[in-house]
TrEMBL record:
<comment type="similarity">
    <text>Belongs to the XseB family.</text>
</comment>
<dbReference type="GO" id="GO:0009318">
    <property type="term" value="C:exodeoxyribonuclease VII complex"/>
</dbReference>
<protein>
    <recommendedName>
        <fullName>Exodeoxyribonuclease 7 small subunit</fullName>
        <ecNumber>3.1.11.6</ecNumber>
    </recommendedName>
</protein>
<keyword id="KW-0378">Hydrolase</keyword>
<comment type="subunit">
    <text>Heterooligomer composed of large and small subunits.</text>
</comment>
<dbReference type="GO" id="GO:0008855">
    <property type="term" value="F:exodeoxyribonuclease VII activity"/>
</dbReference>
<dbReference type="GO" id="GO:0006308">
    <property type="term" value="P:DNA catabolic process"/>
</dbReference>
<dbReference type="InterPro" id="IPR003761">
    <property type="entry name" value="Exonuc_VII_S"/>
</dbReference>
<keyword id="KW-0540">Nuclease</keyword>
<comment type="function">
    <text>Bidirectionally degrades single-stranded DNA into large acid-insoluble oligonucleotides, which are then degraded further into small acid-soluble oligonucleotides.</text>
</comment>
<dbReference type="GO" id="GO:0005829">
    <property type="term" value="C:cytosol"/>
</dbReference>
<keyword id="KW-0269">Exonuclease</keyword>
<dbReference type="InterPro" id="IPR037004">
    <property type="entry name" value="Exonuc_VII_ssu_sf"/>
</dbReference>
<keyword id="KW-0963">Cytoplasm</keyword>
<dbReference type="Pfam" id="PF02609">
    <property type="entry name" value="Exonuc_VII_S"/>
</dbReference>
Amino acid sequence: MSGRSFEEALRRLEEIVQLLEKGEMPLEEALDLFAEGVELAGHCHGMLDAAEQRLEVLARNGTGRNRAGDGGGEF
């Protein structure tokens, strides 16, 4: 999973959601797709967390503090 870009993982996750919403597959296949979707969602979440941390570091390095100035870490 780690070889997928965020965009590739998100695209596949969207595809899985569409397939599951149709409801036209055997239960076992649906469960396998759901499991893949859970993995992809975790992968995307991890990549977003890493990007957020990187942005926070860049913001601190550029200003000496959080851009929001409240210490909350949100932009």
